[in-house]
Amino acid sequence: IVIIGGGVAGLAAAYKLTQAGFLDFRVLEAQSVAGGRISSSVFGEGFVELGAQWIHGSNSMFYEFVHNKRLLSSVISSEGEGHYLREGGARIPNVLISEMKEVIEDILSRCEDFYRKPRNYAPSSVGEYLSVEFERYLQTCDNDSPDTLRLKRGLFDWHLRFQIIDNSCYNLEELCAFDWGRFQSCGSENFNIHHNYFQIVERLLAELPNKSVECKRLVCSVDWNNNIRVLSPCNAALHQYLAEHLIVTCSVGVINAFPLSFFSPHLPDAYVKGFRSIGFGTINKIFLRYEEAWWKDMKGIQLVWDSIKDKLPVEYELDMAWTRGVTGFDLVAGLPTVLLCWVGGIGAELVEQLPDKIVAEHCTALLTLFTGITIPHPTEILRSKWNSNKQVRGSYSYSRAVGDQAKTNVSAQLLTPIYTEKNGRKVPSILFAGEALHEKHYSTVHGAFETGF
């Protein structure tokens, strides 16, 4: 058995095989270490997570694994906390923030109902539904002043940016409204891991046979015409792996970048179309460390633009356009002098093209604009670049509104093995796993774990 990809799905598959007594397998990981989109890095006095950050909820097989390994921290984190600030530093009242949060949550909750109705009842996208329903809400706000209405639109814009990051899409018009109710949460808590997230990878690796995971093994082709032959470049030559079964756990971004010649013969059209129908976007994190916590009693800094509709203040340079994908700067548990900047949409890709020094300057300008005070430059910066990573090509998946293809159960199709005839019997030759293929928990680490398992 050959497993392509040593992320959580691939390691979970290997773990399950080991438990069942199947030890004749190899996990081939293209990167220098296993873990996929789990990436813990030393930063300042501790660790930060450039990839997966939390265990989302306690109602999952993955939570049970981590809990049984005693890796869970008692610290539970939250997102979008702290002061909501306008350009110039004015703080938005908490009562207005709470009201707008309830409005958005109510709209998105009603959007979930479309999954239980015939598809033609659903609007074309989550973005369309949010915009229409929000305008309908504003029509009930006759007594609001022009400034209050402007604030509500600014907060609505913040929630759009938050949802773009949360769903790893480029805009909410790409997000399928019908499938919005298909995703199921495993709980509202964001559990942290003791020390760092990579410990989970280490515990999975410890369960596997020695030398069963090979890193820096980039697979260049798969011949499954008879027996399966997997080729990987090795020291200017090709290393060959022969197998009866192949489990492919690469990200959707990588699979969709495979040349047509990668699989010989080609994959059946239903699988090719299925993978191409899945959305796969990018979000990035920027960690900034300072000599001291200049934000004092603020529990975070959220940015509410007055100049919405993708407009930037005239003094902004063109290469600062990426900052319109930023929701704000969160505190980081255990690192009191570190801020975490979240950026999504096209901004997440644009920022990868800039050097660290420029990104740090842009973050300083952004914080200065919204706090109204002089902000010191960070002493250190560390950031993710998931779109540029050719072994990942993005962050995680979302359910994309793509016409007819969205009408099929893509998850069920792609989780069905591709069978071949051998000695008069049907054999599952190629199988797929990964977060994008989970019907209800796509985009999550626990979804990846369960499909691999």
UniProtKB/TrEMBL annotation:
InterPro entries: Amino_oxidase (IPR002937), FAD/NAD-bd_sf (IPR036188), Flavin_monoamine_oxidase (IPR050281). GO terms for molecular function: polyamine oxidase activity. It holds the Pfam family Amino_oxidase. Residues 8-452 form the Amine oxidase domain. It comes from the Eukaryota. SUPFAM superfamilies: FAD-linked reductases, C-terminal domain (SSF54373), FAD/NAD(P)-binding domain (SSF51905). This is Putative flavin-containing amine oxidase. It comes from Panstrongylus lignarius.
